[in-house]
Amino acid sequence: MKKVKVELGKRSYDIIIKSGLLNNVAEYLSNINLGEKVFIITDKNVSPLYLAQIERGLEKFTNKIFEIIVEPGEQLKSFVNLAKISNFILEHQPERNSTIIALGGGVIGDLSGFIASILLRGINFIQIPTTLLAQVDSSVGGKTAINTNYGKNLIGSFYQPKLVLIDPDTLLSLSDREYYCGYVEALKYGLIDQADFYDFLEKNKEKIKNRNLDILSEIIVTCCTAKARIVAEDEQEKGKRALLNLGHTFAHSLEKETGYSELLKHGEAVALGIILALQLSLKLCYCPQSDLDKVSKHFQYFNIKTHIKQIEHNWKKDNIIKNMYGDKKVINNHLIFILLNGIGKSFISRNINDKIINNFINGIF
Prior knowledge:
Blueprint: E1 2-6, E2 13-17, H1 26-29, E3 37-43, H2 47-58, E4 64-70, H3 79-91, E5 99-104, H4 106-118, E6 124-129, H5 132-138, E7 143-148, E8 151-158, E9 163-166, H6 176-193, H7 195-203, H8 205-209, H9 213-233, H10 248-257, H11 266-283, H12 289-301, H13 317-325, E10 330-331, E11 334-335, E12 337-340, E13 346-349, H14 354-364
Parallel strand pairs: 2-9, 3-4, 3-5, 5-6, 6-9
Antiparallel strand pairs: 1-2, 7-8, 10-11, 12-13
Helix pairs in contact: 5-6, 5-9, 6-7, 6-11, 10-11, 10-13, 11-12
């Protein structure tokens, strides 16, 4: 078992990583005051696989366990579903010490955390992520949100869980597409400030492709440790935490343009965004061509798309730029980008003028 602590004073919490953890989840919940009522939010893909295990563990603490099983997909993160799920929970009269458990991927975690943050002005929240994307990134750090017609994650809050329980065994049940979407977020940490971690991923890419659980556990621990460190320094993203948005300014725009559909999943959009960030860095003479080539080749090894034209969609260049200005990463009407001086050398750029961005986007097509 590995344990990573997110140090936030009285709101500190543990991330526990262990293969087979879900078979004995009660052991790890014993120090948490779950309250009398526990609400498990999950989706129709995950519930047949793990819901019964979680409920068996919870039965040691309470007999008031409520299931909320929803349709999977990014479109779950909407006002309609926020209201529907919140009303279901309110019908069962939750108390301040009641607990919401998010069982699933990043979408389930984002929505569940937001609901926990606003019900009764905040109730207990536990993350049990079952996708690689959620395990290495979204389940840690307390970002919660829903999407709107104006953009991704524009309605949300910073609300930390009480505990994060990660069982790498769940990664064996993922489709290749879902698995590689999560891997993109793992690679991101190597690009941000850990060149040695990038080298580790490059060295072990065959084992990663074959889902070697020892390697995957090491990846999860490394990413969670890195994110815990950054969140402890800058919980509400007023400084260094913005580096975790590498590729996301582009990615969120592309996702919005495709209607948050299955045509382009979040991890795939982030991969394209990372390549675009490297291309922009190259254009501005910050990073060498060799690093762009190296990362592109690495993604291609996993059949991860590296060019926007590989996504069959009627792209509108003007909309892509417009979408970026509607995202959260704008200050004084200037776009904020995470760029790179090279692998493991990211930085926050706030001074790129509109003409450069327009020319860059036009040059992509």
